[in-house]
Specification:
The complex is a heterodimer of chains A (554) and B (279). Chain A folds into 3 domains: 7-175, 3-Layer(aba) Sandwich (Pyruvate-ferredoxin Oxidoreductase, domain 3), CATH 3.40.920.10; 190-363, Rossmann fold, CATH 3.40.50.970; 451-553, Rossmann fold. Chain A has helices at residues 19-32, 78-84, 113-117, 127-138, 143-153, 158-175, 193-203, 218-231, 241-253, 264-280, 307-311, 328-345, 355-359, 424-446, 467-477, 516-524, 543-553, and strands at residues 7-15, 36-42, 49-59, 70-75, 88-97, 109-111, 190-192, 208-211, 234-236, 258-262, 284-290, 321-323, 348-354, 361-363, 408-410, 451-454, 460-462, 483-487, 489-491, 505-510, 528-534. Helix content of chain A is 37%, strand content 20%. Chain A is built from 17 helices and 21 strands. Chain A has 554 residues and is α/β, with parallel strands linked by helices. Chain B has one domain: Rossmann fold, CATH 3.40.50. Chain B has an 8-stranded mixed β-sheet with strand order 2-1-3-4-6-5-8-7, sandwiched between helices. The N and C termini of chain B lie far apart (62 Å). The chains are: A alpha/beta (554), B alpha/beta (279). Chains A and B meet through helix 7, helix 8, helix 9, helix 10 and strand 15 of A and helix 2, strand 2, helix 3, helix 5 and helix 11 of B. Strand 15 of chain A pairs parallel with strand 2 (61-64) of chain B.
Chain lengths: 554, 279
């Protein structure tokens, strides 16, 4: 059902106008009203110029997606007027920077935002502040509340920013009209997916995070680096993703719990060492945040095209765990769980996500209670320690150097002590031991829920990752009835949680051109995939557009 | 009984230079033990190739890594537990080819690891191709008409990268090599021992090196002097070219903390997560 309380703010301009910051501050403004928020940044791979926008949807009820049709859009440059004038809600207002365009825009409100900024240093960088002021005027904030709010939110040159904000507010209050927003009782915390991943990995036992910058995974690195001291962890940015993965594996082998992160290209460089983690049975968690590929692709946009890549990481055969969270809360939980599962079963794990979740910011209700499933590491103190002791579960007790025992980890096929072997019987024994670990992981996953289900009746939609958010929001805004099934764990694939759906028709929604997820479902479940709703332009689904597309196939 | 040996069968060619390197390394470990080092605190890594079999032959803990990556694995181990004395064995293909970036960066950040390069100018285990240190014109299965590339001067390269300890040794001079290993392992910071290793099957350099190695007396006093020694063409200098002190990577990064032994407690994590959520 259309949510009458929903209010969407969009700010657009060039890189260098403070658009992203304005989006964050606008989200905080809604947050201070107790409203739920979903904020999505659309930006290009450049430092100055181009076209960026930040869209912030808010409501008194949870909002699971950005809406492109804005109730208030602020265009900071001429190009933004053209890009967004068609994307307004029926009662939506477009405010534009009249200093940036020579002509009057019919049906829109021009304010001289650049002219008002003259006299301040870095005038262009301040335009985002103006957008926040326009929003404040539109939602009926008082002048003095805005003064305090800008003072809290803009720490650099606070005085100048407050003065500029108030000068914009004064002209805006006369012309933009007021839509009073209802207060809500949403939790106060807002996080991006990447912040939640970093926090979850830490909650799950992370000691050292290794990463080389690559959009859209870099903010995990930045978040953990900024918090390293208070968390009591170490964050390292070495020379390459190859160094990242090999250092992380070395560090894990002496008992530090490590994680790494990158996007597709960086994980491709890690792949040889991913296989090393498989052979050496090194616990390691890897964050793979996707953007459109192949190759360099479209760095700052979203995609789900690395599913097969994630599932099939590494040459040779070895157990691995892959999971993909739908929400920021789930990102926190899954990051912690994967750290734990990796250490419990001594296998590499991949947290597969995408730019849309990594970099979108939303209201979350995360409890500081740590996940209950913290890894139980089998330790053995006996004198005759063998790193790769053959066991029923396939999992060998761990021990770390410095130790009285010889603790050998290795990339070669090996005997129980970790000495290289080419003996056919020993090769089989170790292959089977590693295979049994996969069975043990399956056994573990069977004891818990690996698949989310939403809705009781209606046709069946299957999706995964943050596309789940888009689907749920589309069903809500489009007033559509459907059941949604979302596997969180993708490897080992939880087939057992699909058995009751055998033979059912299913519509699959995913952000891939090859429909990789649809193929996976055909292979691993008894579902009858009748339609795949795909999007692969780098943009996340817009819920209203997705609702229209779903209506065609439901 | 050799308590530094394992049950692994030694499969190096008879007369291989690796025997001398292994022997000198064991002697260095024993000497350091008499000086108070605990054997348990030594951790080793190795790349892939003939040199790397050293990993199986030593009764020491560690990680048998990938080709070119033993230096990266070693840096991860050292950072996670600075108590460890980490020694990375590498071939010249590992250290100066596939993994050269890790060498250069380990030196740049003064990572406190010792890299022992078994430099034989040949890929022995893959049947004799030219390596980054093979002479121009070297004929092997991948360069039947002779390599067209000039070799690296690894000592000059690593000096320029900022290595705080650089040495070259020769297994034909076991006592001298033992001294170099002991000094390199004791050095706080990045240390390289480039070992001129004859390969009896594909690149037998015993006669050449027996006739040409020259033991350095004093360690050169300056970087420029060290560089000049590394570039000498009148004989092959062996000995310590550089030995200077500088804060190490783990000291700079950790300030005395030990990530593996002093992990943040569950209680601390719970509090820190709660505080981060309040921000």
């Amino acid at each position: 059902m259309e949510d009458s309380q929903r209010f969407t703010f969009l700010v657009a301009g060039e890189a260098g106008h403070g658009v992203r910051r304005a989006g964050i501050v606008a989200a905080d403004l809604f947050g201070e009203l107790g409203r739920y928020v979903f904020q999505m940044d659309d930006y290009q791979s450049l430092i100055r110029g181009g076209h960026n926008f930040s869209v912030v949807s808010s409501s008194t009820a949870p909002v699971l997606s950005q809406y492109l049709r804005a109730d208030l859009a602020v265009a900071l440059d001429a190009r933004s007027i053209e890009k967004h004038r068609e994307h307004l809600s029926p009662s939506g207002v477009l405010v534009y920077n009249s200093s940036a365009t020579g002509e009057t825009v019919p049906g829109a409100i021009g304010l001289p935002l650049s002219s008002l900024a003259k006299g301040y240093t870095y005038a262009e960088l301040r335009l985002g502040v103006a957008a926040v002021s326009v929003l404040a005027a539109r939602v009926g904030m008082t002048r003095s509340d805005l003064e305090g709010f800008i003072g809290r939110k803009y720490e650099r040159d606070t005085e100048g920013n407050v003065a500029y904000a108030l000068s914009v507010f004064d002209v805006a209050a006369r012309s933009v009209g007021v839509t009073q927003l209802e207060r809500g009782d949403a939790p106060a915390t807002m996080l991006t997916g990447n912040e939640a991943i970093g926090l979850g990995a830490y909650a799950g036992g992370l000691d050292i995070y290794f990463a080389y910058p690559m959009t859209p995974a870099s903010s995990v690195l930045h978040y953990l680096a900024a918090h390293a001291r208070e968390f009591g962890i170490t964050v390292v940015h070495p020379e390459s993703e190859i160094a990242v993965m090999n250092m992380a594996i070395g560090a894990a082998s002496v008992g530090a719990r490590t994680a790494v992160g990158s996007s597709g290209g960086g994980v491709a460089l890690m792949e040889e060492a991913m296989s090393l983690a498989g052979m050496s049975e090194t616990p390691i968690m890897c964050v793979l945040s996707s953007r459109p590929g192949p190759s360099t692709g479209v760095p700052t946009y979203t995609a789900q095209a690395d599913l097969s890549f994630a599932l099939n990481q590494g040459h040779g055969e070895f157990a691995r765990i892959v999971a993909s969270p739908a929400t920021v809360e789930e990102a926190y939980r899954i990051a912690a769980e994967l750290m734990s599962l990796s250490w419990t079963y001594q296998v590499p794990s991949i947290l597969l996500t995408e730019k849309h979740l990594s970099e979108s910011r939303m209201t979350v209700g995360i409890s500081a209670e740590l996940p209950s499933e913290l890894a139980s590491i089998m330790a053995e103190r006996g004198p005759n320690y063998a790193r790769y002791a053959d066991t029923e579960t396939g999992v060998s007790p761990l021990r770390f150097a410095p130790s009285d025992a010889m603790v050998k980890w290795t990339s070669y096929e090996h005997d129980e002590k970790g000495i290289s072997t080419e003996d056919p019987d020993m090769i089989c024994l170790m292959q089977e031991k590693r295979r049994r670990k996969r069975d043990s992981v399956v056994e573990h996953l069977r004891g818990r829920s690996c698949v989310n289900r939403f809705g009781e009746t209606g046709p069946l939609i299957v999706t995964y990752g943050s596309t789940t958010l888009s689907v749920l929001e589309a069903l809500s805004c489009g007033d559509l009835e459907a059941r949604v099934v979302q596997p969180v764990y993708l490897e080992p694939f939880p087939e057992w949680e699909f058995s009751d759906l055998d033979g059912e028709d299913a519509i699959v929604v995913e952000q891939s051109c090859d429909a990789q997820f649809s193929e996976l479902l055909r292979r691993r479940t008894g579902l009858n995939v009748v339609a795949s709703v795909l999007q692969y332009d780098g943009r996340p689904f817009d819920p209203e557009d997705l609702a229209r597309r779903l209506k065609e196939v439901l | 009984m050799d308590d530094l040996a394992t049950y692994a069968e030694n499969t190096w060619c008879p007369g291989c230079g690796n025997f001398g390197i292994l022997s000198a390394f064991k002697r260095a470990v024993r000497r350091l033990e008499t000086d108070g080092m605990r054997r348990q605190d030594v951790a080793i890594t190795a790349g892939i190739g003939c040199h790397a079999k050293t990993f199986d032959y030593l009764n020491l803990s560690g990680f048998y890594s990938l080709h070119g990556r033993s230096m990266a694995t070693a840096q991860g181990m050292k950072l996670a537990n600075p108590r460890l004395k980490v020694v990375a064995f590498a071939g010249d293909g590992d250290a100066y080819g596939e993994g050269i970036a890790h060498m250069v960066f380990a030196a740049k950040r003064n990572a406190d690891i010792t890299v022992i390069v078994h430099n034989n100018g040949i890929y022995g285990l893959t049947t004799g191709q030219y390596t980054p240190t093979s002479a121009k014109g070297f004929k092997g299965p991948s360069t039947p008409d002779g390599s067209v590339e000039d070799p690296f001067n690894p000592l000059a390269l690593m000096l320029s990268a900022g290595a705080t300890f650089v040495a070259r040794g020769y297994p034909g001079r076991i006592d001298h090599l033992t001294d170099l290993f002991a000094r390199a392992i004791s050095h706080e910071g990045f240390s390289l021992v480039d070992v001129l290793q004859p390969c009896v099957s594909f690149n037998n350099t015993y006669e050449r090196y027996n006739a040409s190695v020259v033991e350095l007396g004093e360690t050169p006093e300056s970087f420029e002097e060290a560089l000049a020694v590394a570039g000498r063409t009148d004989g092959v200098p062996i000995g310590v070219l550089r030995d200077v002190s500088k804060p190490t990577f783990h000291q700079e990064m950790l300030g005395g903390r030990n990530p593996a032994e002093e992990r943040a407690s569950v209680a601390h994590r719970r509090e820190a997560v709660a505080a981060a959520l309040r921000q």
